Write a sequence for this structure.
C-alpha cells in the first residue's frame, strides 16, 4: 500500500471497525515538525469519517512525540499512543471494537502487534525512501527477511 487512499479502500473492503495507524511515516514523516504532526493527525482522522463502519482510529508510535491536542472527531473514538512500545504492549488496544486493521511500515513492530491483537496487518510502503532514518531502514530490511516466518497468509503490500 502506498497512499492514504489505498488504506481507506482496504479498510472499507475488509469492513474494519478499528484502525490502528503507525504515525511515522503514514501520518507524519520522522523528524517532521509539530505542525506537520498536528496537520497529519487531523487530516487522516477526517478521512476515516468517510469510511462506513469505522468506529475507532488509534494513532500509535514508538516515539515520544505527541500532537498538540488530543485527536477528536464526533462519531469516531480517537486515541493517540506515544511511546507505544509496539509490539510488546497490547493493553491499550484491548477494548477497541473488532475486527481491526493495523497499518504500518514495519513487519517486526507493527506486523507483530497486529498478529498479537488478531488484527489484519496492512504493510505501508512510503512513496519516497530518502529521509528515512537508518533505524527504520534497517528494521524494514530485517522485517522483509522475517515476513515469511511470521505471516503465512499474504501481507497486503503495494509499492507506489
Amino acid at each position: 500500500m502506498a497512499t492514504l487512499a489505498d488504506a481507506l479502500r482496504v479498510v472499507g473492503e475488509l469492513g474494519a471497525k478499528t484502525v490502528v495507524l503507525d504515525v511515522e511515516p503514514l501520518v507524519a514523516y520522522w523528524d517532521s515538525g509539530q505542525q506537520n504532526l498536528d496537520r497529519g493527525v487531523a487530516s487522516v482522522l477526517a478521512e476515516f469519517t468517510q469510511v462506513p463502519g469505522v468506529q475507532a482510529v488509534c494513532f500509535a508510535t514508538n516515539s515520544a512525540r505527541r500532537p498538540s491536542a488530543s485527536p477528536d472527531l464526533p462519531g469516531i473514538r480517537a486515541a493517540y499512543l506515544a511511546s507505544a512500545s509496539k509490539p510488546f504492549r497490547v493493553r491499550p488496544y484491548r477494548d477497541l471494537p473488532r475486527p481491526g486493521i493495523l497499518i504500518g511500515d514495519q513487519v517486526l513492530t507493527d506486523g507483530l502487534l497486529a498478529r498479537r491483537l488478531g488484527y489484519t496487518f496492512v504493510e505501508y510502503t512510503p512513496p519516497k525512501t530518502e529521509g528515512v532514518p537508518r533505524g527504520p531502514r534497517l528494521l524494514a530490511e530485517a522485517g522483509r527477511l522475517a515476513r515469511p516466518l511470521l505471516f503465512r497468509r499474504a501481507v497486503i503490500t503495494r509499492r507506489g
Notes: The chain has a mean pLDDT of 85. The domain at 4-150 is CATH 3.40.50 (Rossmann fold).
